[in-house]
Structures are given as C-alpha cells and as structure tokens.
Design a protein that fits this description.
Shape: globular
Distance between the termini: 29 Å
Radius of gyration: 17 Å
Oligomer: single chain
Number of helices: 5
C-alpha cells in the first residue's frame, strides 16, 4: 500500500471522511506570532466551526461573546451577532504575502492565520488526495529514536495552505507528526501529537509551530503558533 493510502486509512479512512460535512472545535491558539501582533491571549478558549469540503471556518469567543470572525480564502470578516459586517479584508492571501515579516498585524490577520491552520489540521491527510494536490514519497527521516516516512506535497492555487509546498512526516502508525514549510518569512516545523479519534476521525489535539535554523535545527522556544484542541465533533 502506498504511503498516502496508509495515512488516509490511519486518519479514519476516506469512506468515513466523505460522509462528513462540518466540524466544531473547542480550542486555544496562541504563540509568539500573537504576542508580536499585540493579540496575546485573544484566541484562547474559542470555538471554531467549519466545513470539511470547502475552506470556511467561523471563530467565536475571541472578541467578546457577540462578535465572530469568518475565514474564507477570498475574504476575512468580523461580524456582529446580528450579522452586520464590522470589518472586511478581501484577498487576504495576496495582501498577507506582501506584508513584511514584522508588519503591522491585527485581528483580521490573526483570523487568516488561524483559519488556514485550523482547516488544514482538520482536513489532513484527506486533503492530500484532492485531485489538484501532487505528492511524492521522500526517503525516511530519523527523528530521535523514531523513523518517520515523508511525503512532499504540492498544493494548487485553489487550496490555501501555509504555503503551497510542504514536507509531511508520518510515524509507523501512519499518523502525521511533523510538517515543514515557510511561514511569515521563516522556515518552520509544525509538530503534531496527542492524537484522538472523534467519530472515527483521528485528530492531532496538539500542534506546535517551531522555527528552523538555516542548518535545519529546531528552535524549541518560543513557538510561533501553539494550537490545543480540547474537543471536536463532526457532522
């Protein structure tokens, strides 16, 4: 069995995944990116609701009980409880790419970062079987006392990720343990752990993004992003 088939089966299987349409998470997101933007603690104890087939995530609880943030590839918005749009950011991917590494960030930028991260956490590894995604297996990688198999993934423009080229690592059970990619001008390694099954779908409940040195060494602290999922449900 090819590695991609193995990891999809380990994640819960494509047949089960295709039956699902929505997810709801209780989670916290923090890290040095938030501190840098003056948003430390704003995304702790929040709720994220999203779609499994389209890139859509709604965040509630980060800006008071009455407002929510919506992430979509072409538009980021902050809305009031009555549906009024309070703030909008169109074409966020292009605008975000044009920002300098230490540019001025706000809540809209954080919704974008969190939306891309959360949607990819919940849809991987199934997203790798998307018709437009190309993968190839790389030689195994030794991580401390474990040997992880790797996939080099190339995502089409229609799928918004951090960024379009990534290297994903999977342990002997087929669970995703690490992903290498670029993030805001830095090389990062995202480590996934504490996997749990929710309605048969295996989700990493801890995800930590760590900076990589030019020689590939991992800088353990501080994490750029720290995601902790307390509970998840699928419909």
């Amino acid at each position: 069995m090819a590695l991609l088939d193995e990891v999809i089966e380990a994640g819960g299987g494509m047949k089960r995944w295709k039956r699902l349409k929505r997810f709801t998470l209780q989670l916290s997101i923090d890290g040095s990116l938030f501190s840098r933007a003056g948003q430390a603690g704003r995304f702790k104890e929040i709720v994220a609701e999203g779609a499994t087939k389209t890139q859509f995530v709604r965040f509630a609880g980060f800006a008071g009980p009455d407002n929510c943030g919506l992430y979509q590839p072409e538009r980021i918005t902050i809305e009031a409880s009555d549906g009024r749009v309070l703030r909008t950011w169109n074409k966020p991917q292009q605008s975000f790419s044009d920002q300098p590494e230490h540019g001025v960030w706000d809540e809209l930028s954080m919704i974008y970062i969190c939306g891309v991260s959360v949607w990819n956490i919940l849809t991987t590894p199934f997203l790798l079987a998307h018709p437009g995604v190309k993968t190839k297996e790389l030689p195994p990688w030794r991580e401390h006392d474990q040997q992880w198999r790797r996939l080099h993934a190339f995502f089409p423009p229609s799928v918004m990720t951090h960024p379009s080229e990534q290297v994903l690592y999977f342990d002997e059970e087929g669970l995703q343990r690490r992903t290498d990619h670029d993030l805001i001008g830095s090389k990062v390694a995202e480590y996934s752990s504490a996997h749990q099954a929710f309605r048969g779908i295996v989700v990493p409940t801890l995800r930590r993004s760590l900076t990589l040195k030019p020689d590939g060494a991992v800088i353990a602290k501080p994490p750029l992003l720290d995601v902790e999922i307390f509970d998840a449900s699928f419909e």
